[in-house]
Amino acid sequence: GRLLFLVMWLNLLPQTDSCPAKCVCYSEPRPTVACQQQGLFSIPTVIPVRSQRIFLQSNKLTVVRSTSFSSCHNLTVLWLYSNNITYIEAGAFFGLEKLEELDIGDNSNLRTINPTAFRGLTKLHTLHLHRCGLSELPVGVFRGMFSLQYLYLQDNNISTLHDDTFVDLANLTYLYLHNNKIKIVTDNMFRGVINLDRLLLHQNQVIFVQPRAFSDLGKLKSLFLFFNNITVLTGETMDPLVSLQYLRLNGNQWICDCRARTLWDWFKRFKGSSSELECYVPEFLAGKDLKQLKSEELEGCVETSQIQTTLFNSKAQSGKFSSTESPLGDNIPKCCLGDNDKSSILSGKSRQITNNPPKEKENMSKTKYKQQERTKNETQNKQNDGPLGTLSNNLDKTLENLNPEFIENPESSTASNKKKKKCSRKTKLDSHCSKSQSSTLQVLHFLIIPMIWISLAMS
């Protein structure tokens, strides 16, 4: 018995002797090195090889070197949160094939991550990168992390995410991206995360969700998009979310016109729990819940100029996005491009065309354009190619360079109204030219005939 006790004591002695200064080491429930809140400026150089858990949170660490944990091949849990880490060397976690949980959160000066920082962590299931001041994630940073289930990226400064950033994370279950600066949810942003259960995107600056953004999220149960800058979201975008149970879309400024109809239809089929969707425009529906509106209330189309002016001003005041950004993205549905009333979505002074008296409209229709060879169909297609679906990009730029008085007078887009209109030399004369020539003939008739009689009398 004494011999057995001596052997056990000798086995424990190296573990005790190698425990770093200012740290506490213990073997139950698992070999652990606890060095939290010790004011450490660097990672201890001597760490027991058999350690499975290392707690280094709440210190003053600044760098994680490639040699810091090179001997800890049994490590399963590593906590480095709440330090002052500014740099992680490439290969800092190389060789930690058994690592399951890594917490580097709350290091506000960690602005960038090396693309290969997490390479080889094939068994990692939890990664904390919250509150790190990250502005972007490098391409391929999560490559090969097939076991990852929980990814915490909230409270950073991320404005864009590369396509396929999470493509290798087929087992990802929770993705936390709230309180960042993401503006567009792209079609391929979440490609590959086929088992995602919870997606938190609230408190960003999202202005537009592309149509196929959620196409791989058939198992998603919770989607939070509240407190963003979304004005339009289509039902087709939401259709892939067949398992959705909890949806939060409040705190956006919804356009409740024909553009909201497909989302309104989708809510009729949705069986889960949802927040209210407070209408912002049109004014007579402001504050009402989109889901509770009647079908006839979604007819028509709110003027683009009204949406831009009102939404831009309110958002600029709240600091969410500047007035140069369009809350509508580049998609305006065909319901706003009806042939019967295109004037409802013309902005600014262009809308004054509809206020001209009939005589001015008649004169405007007779104006001869320089490019008269363009057909009516080509002109119509050109209008529908613009960013707002009404005016072309070239036309918008031309209007910006025009003198204001030209914009006021629709005729002056081809010629100044101070100049006389020239008659066409074509055989087919318009009414204006016919009247002018008729008047000229009458004048000649009254002048030439008396002159003939006078010359005959004198002879």
From TrEMBL:
Record-level Gene Ontology MF annotations: ganglioside GM1 binding; ganglioside GT1b binding
Give the organism the record lists: Xiphophorus couchianus (Monterrey platyfish)
Q: How does it sit in the membrane?
A: Lipid-anchor
Q: What is this protein called?
A: Reticulon 4 receptor
Q: Which UniProt keywords apply?
A: Cell membrane, Cell projection, Glycoprotein, Leucine-rich repeat, Lipoprotein, Membrane, Receptor, Repeat, Signal
**Span of the signal peptide:** 1-18
Say yes or no: keyword Glycoprotein present: yes
List the Gene3D superfamilies. Ribonuclease Inhibitor (3.80.10.10)
Compositional bias, Basic and acidic residues, is annotated for 358-379
Q: Which GO terms describe its biological process?
A: positive regulation of Rho protein signal transduction
Q: What's any one GO cellular component for it?
A: cell projection
